[in-house]
């Protein structure tokens, strides 16, 4: 993993995604420098997953303008996908419960870029390839703080036997292995204790400090995170666009009490998606297939 690569700048103005069920989200404004930690916050069904997929080129935005790493969306979705990675997104970037941690890591290393040079050096059974894959795996594990010796059976531990925080670390290790400029992580706080949530956010902050831009959905973000909020389906601003008035009640309620930087909030249109996380995810996956 190339830890010296610069993160991706993210700039978005009034972006939204509309699908068969209406607006997943709309009216999102983001301005983030490379290496930023961006926290997407909002209730289930408010478009958080769709926003992550849109910013990584895996879902086509249908209104507004955006650039990620200098590439415009949706025109250069392929270029953005090649420079970004996703982790912990149910139904899109799932871990396989029956496979071991080591098998996941080996597979991800195999899917990475081939080594340059001779043909023999790029073959999976060559010594050079194996050494390079081992180095990438070790670097990725170190970056996310996953020590194989702490797992019940080391890297032979099946995913179903991992604790939730360990599974999150493994998912992140797979995502950062090939040096993405932007990393998107969903449900950072899913079924984690308060202490575990703090550890998870600290891990993401460390990745951002190392240079990778991180966009993560979850609550209890650290005070130095850039906050982007999504709203309940059916909530619209005074102008009917779904944006919130900066001086209105909604914007006042959106102010973060921890001192985090809060950017423009979002709200779906009147035909918004269902108000459950499962239905939002199904909507996102359908749109991802189209992308």
Automatic annotation (TrEMBL):
Signal peptide: none annotated. GO terms for molecular function: ATP binding; ATP hydrolysis activity; transmembrane transporter activity. InterPro entries: ABC_transporter-like_ATP-bd, ABC_transpr_LolD-like, P-loop_NTPase. One of its GO terms (cellular component) is plasma membrane. Residues 10-264 form the ABC transporter domain. Residues 249-267 have a biased composition (Low complexity). Keywords: ATP-binding, Nucleotide-binding. The keyword Nucleotide-binding applies. Residues 235-291 are annotated as: Disordered. PANTHER family: IMPORT ATP-BINDING PROTEIN. This is ATP-binding cassette domain-containing protein. It comes from Streptomyces piniterrae.
């Amino acid at each position: 993993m190339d830890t010296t690569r610069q993160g991706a700048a993210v700039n978005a103005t009034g972006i939204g995604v509309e699908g068969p069920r209406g607006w997943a989200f709309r009216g999102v404004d983001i301005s983030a420098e490379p290496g930023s930690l961006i926290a997407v916050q909002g209730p289930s069904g408010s478009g958080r997953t769709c926003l992550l997929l849109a910013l990584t080129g895996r879902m086509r935005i249908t209104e507004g303008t955006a650039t990620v790493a200098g590439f415009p969306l949706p025109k250069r979705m392929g270029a953005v996908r090649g420079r970004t990675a996703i982790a912990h997104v149910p139904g899109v970037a799932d871990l396989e419960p029956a496979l071991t941690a080591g098998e996941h890591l080996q597979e991800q290393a195999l899917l990475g870029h081939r080594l340059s040079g001779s043909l023999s050096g790029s073959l999976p059974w060559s010594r050079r390839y194996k050494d390079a894959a081992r180095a990438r795996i070790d670097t990725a594990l170190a970056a996310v703080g996953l020590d194989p010796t702490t797992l019940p059976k080391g890297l032979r531990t099946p995913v179903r036997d991992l604790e939730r925080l360990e599974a999150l670390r493994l998912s992140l290790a797979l995502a950062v292995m090939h040096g993405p400029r932007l990393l998107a992580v969903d449900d950072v706080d899913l079924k984690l204790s308060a202490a575990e949530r703090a550890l998870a956010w600290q891990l993401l902050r460390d990745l951002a400090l190392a240079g990778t831009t991180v966009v993560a959905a979850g609550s209890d973000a650290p005070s130095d995170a850039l906050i982007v909020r999504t709203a309940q389906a059916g909530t619209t601003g005074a102008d009917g666009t779904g944006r919130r008035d900066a001086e209105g009640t909604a914007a006042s309620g959106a102010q973060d009490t921890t001192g985090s930087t809060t950017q423009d909030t979002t709200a779906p249109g009147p035909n918004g998606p269902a108000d459950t996380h499962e239905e939002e995810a199904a909507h996102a996956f359908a749109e991802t297939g189209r992308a």
